[in-house]
Structure formats: structure tokens, C-alpha cells
Design brief:
Helix content is 63%, strand content 0%. By secondary structure, the protein is mainly alpha-helical. The longest helix has 23 residues. Bound molecules: 1-(2,5-dioxo-2,5-dihydro-1H-imidazol-4-yl)urea.
């Protein structure tokens, strides 16, 4: 969708356009209500700080849309298409290492490991996972919030063009 169309379309259409970027109602409302945006950069900047901080319940609700890193992404939804584009290509060794890392992360934090995957190799994603295992629960919530926002900003810049 063009930015000028996004700025002037109906509320429902605008909300449906941003939902695949981050499915959190308070965040969607803030982005939609922040229209009109002068540029896509202004829109992605809003994505990074709208509705901050996100609550644990909001984070966990949003995580339900994110497949595990290194896992096969099924489905025809807009979210699934974004995930397939964002996920790194992994060889068998990396896939096994990520599966093991995901298991360790889920045992520690009781939620799926979420990282902004676009532009990152499987090795980098795994190294970040190992680092984050040492975070406190509060520190990790703040990191997950930031990663969701980075993914949302990238998805918005892919969905809305100048
Ligand atoms: N578990 C995840 O981190 N999933 C994802 N990260 C991305 O950047 N896209 C995803 O689907």
C-alpha cells in the first residue's frame, strides 16, 4: 500500500494493514491514530516507540504469531509470509543447534525465543540466544519488546511504500 493511501484509508483498512507487523491492539491503535505520517521513516519510527512499554500479556499474545527460529513456517497468512522472508536459511547442523537453543530458552523463560531475524545469520541468532539466557526475567522482557518492535518496523517498511 502507498503511504498516501495508508494515511487516508479507513481505520479498519489501516488497522488490517499494520496487524501483520505486530498483533497488539494498543500498538495497532497508536499507529493508526498517529496518521498521517510524513514519510515511511516517520511511520517506522512510530513503530519503535508506540504503546511503550508493552505488557508481558501483550508480548505473549504477539509471540503466538511467531514460529520458532529455524522451524519450517507453514500457512498462507501475511505473518507467515513475513516470517519465511525473515528467517535465515539453515543447514542441518544450524537447524539442530537452533532447536536445542530454542528448547533451552523455552525452559528458562517459558516462551518462544524471539529475535529480529532479518539480516542475521543462524550463527548470530544462536549467539544472541546464548547471551540472552543469562538475562533476568525483567531484562529479557525489555529485549523481547525491542525485538518485536524492530520486526514490526521492518514489516511496515515492507508493506507500506512511498
Ligand atoms: N521466533 C522468532 O524470532 N520469529 C521471528 N523472528 C523474525 O524476525 N521473524 C519471525 O517470524
Amino acid at each position: 500500500m502507498l503511504l498516501k493511501e495508508f494515511n487516508s484509508t479507513s481505520r479498519d483498512e489501516a488497522a488490517a494493514t499494520v496487524k501483520p507487523a505486530l498483533d497488539i491492539a494498543r500498538w495497532i491503535d497508536a499507529i493508526v491514530d498517529g496518521r498521517p505520517y510524513a514519510s515511511v521513516d516517520a511511520l517506522t519510527a512510530a513503530a519503535l516507540d508506540a504503546a511503550a512499554p508493552l505488557s508481558e500479556a501483550e508480548l505473549d499474545g504477539a509471540l503466538a504469531h511467531h514460529p520458532r527460529i529455524g522451524a519450517k513456517v507453514d500457512g498462507t497468512s501475511a505473518e507467515a509470509a513475513h516470517s519465511r522472508r525473515e528467517q535465515p536459511s539453515v543447514d542441518d547442523a544450524a537447524r539442530a543447534a537452533l532447536a536445542e537453543g530454542n528448547r533451552a530458552y523455552e525452559a528458562r523463560f517459558d516462551r518462544v525465543y524471539l529475535v529480529r531475524a532479518a539480516g542475521r545469520s543462524a550463527e548470530e541468532i544462536l549467539a544472541l540466544l546464548q547471551q540472552r539466557l543469562g538475562n533476568t526475567d525483567e531484562q529479557e522482557l525489555a529485549v523481547v519488546d525491542q525485538q518485536l518492535r524492530e520486526i514490526a518496523a521492518l514489516r511496515l517498511s515492507a508493506a507500506i511504500e512511498t
